[in-house]
Amino acid sequence: MLVVLFVPSVERDGTTPIDQDRWVDAALEMFGRAFGGATAYPKAKGVWRDDERNGALVKDEPVVVHCYTTRTDIEDSRNLAELGSFCRTMGRDARQGEVGLVIGDEYFAIREFTEE
Amino acid sequence: MKARLDMNKIARGLRAERKGKVFAGGGYFGAMQLLADIETRFRVPAGGGRATDPDWTERRLVPLAPRTLKRLEAITEGIKTRSGVNVEPMQLAGLLLEKTAEQLNEDEVNDLALNRARTVRWSGRRLRPAKPTGSLNWRTR
């Protein structure tokens, strides 16, 4: 099972850079701890349409992190909680509009960054 | 067949919104997903031999067109060259068949059956499609 996380390079405004290296390292550690490993690829080019800002296009250079894991691990509630918490922390601290994850053949969006 | 991942459970666990399918049958994610499936599922059997999915316990003869077999051979050769992962053409066929079967939902199966019933009358034991009669509307899916 493949899990893909996009680590952005800029804030939602499309111009303010974030500490991408720190988030990539943190993502790798989280994936390693919870799911057994991950690979971060070199920077890509990306674009995201911010529908809450009149469809403004946010262009950035995300790092794509791939994690090969098992069905058991991805459905484990503790692992999901850790992955979700990481995404919310990154979304909040890096001022994102959305944090995107692909799990298997489905895209998941995390837009609410408050912890319960 | 393996049960599909419970995507609603995953969404709840992540507190995320399900936004939809990525097209795992093709493109970048399809290729990466395929490679991930091969790497994570295929295991060398305890008694030795070629790596395979331990859950694949059924064996059937599946007729193929030569061009399909050639395509499968080309893909598996590409996988081996680029990633070092060994997979046989018919193992790839099994994986693709499994994915496609899992991706079809019940509504799509019902639609398929309905459309076939409307447009095709099967003739004889060899399952040749009969010629359409009258003004039947041939549809493709």
> By helix and strand content of chain A, what is the structural category?
alpha+beta
- β content of chain A, as a range? 25-35%
Mean pLDDT rating of chain B = 74
Q: How many alpha or pi helices of chain B?
A: 5
Radius of gyration of chain B, in Å, reads: 19 Å
The main β sheet of chain B shows up as: 2 strands, antiparallel
Main traits of this protein?
A: 116 residues, alpha+beta, five-stranded antiparallel β-sheet, two-stranded antiparallel sheet, 7 strands, 33% helix, B: 141 residues, mainly alpha, two-stranded antiparallel ribbon, 5 helices, disordered C terminus
Would you kindly provide a written description of the structure presented here, covering whatever features stand out?
The complex is a heterodimer of chains A (116) and B (141). Chain A has 116 residues and is α+β, with helices and mostly antiparallel strands. Chain A has a domain at 18-62 and 73-99. Chain A is built from three helices and seven strands. Chain A has helices at residues 20-35, 71-75, 77-93; strands at residues 2-7, 39-40, 46-50, 56-60, 63-68, 99-103, 106-110. A five-stranded antiparallel sheet of chain A has the order 2-5-1-6-7, with helices on one face. In chain A, a hairpin with a 2-residue loop joins strand 6 and strand 7. Chain B has 141 residues and is mainly α. Chain B is 50% helix and 6% strand. Chain B contains five helices and three strands, in the order H-E-H-H-H-H-E-E. A two-stranded antiparallel sheet of chain B has the order 2-3. In chain B, a hairpin with a 4-residue loop joins strand 2 (122-123) and strand 3 (128-129). In chain B, helix 3 (66-83) crosses helix 4. Classes of the chains: A alpha+beta (116), B mainly alpha (141). The interface between A and B is medium-sized, with 30 and 27 residues. Strand 7 of chain A pairs antiparallel with strand 1 (17-21) of chain B, so a sheet runs across the interface.
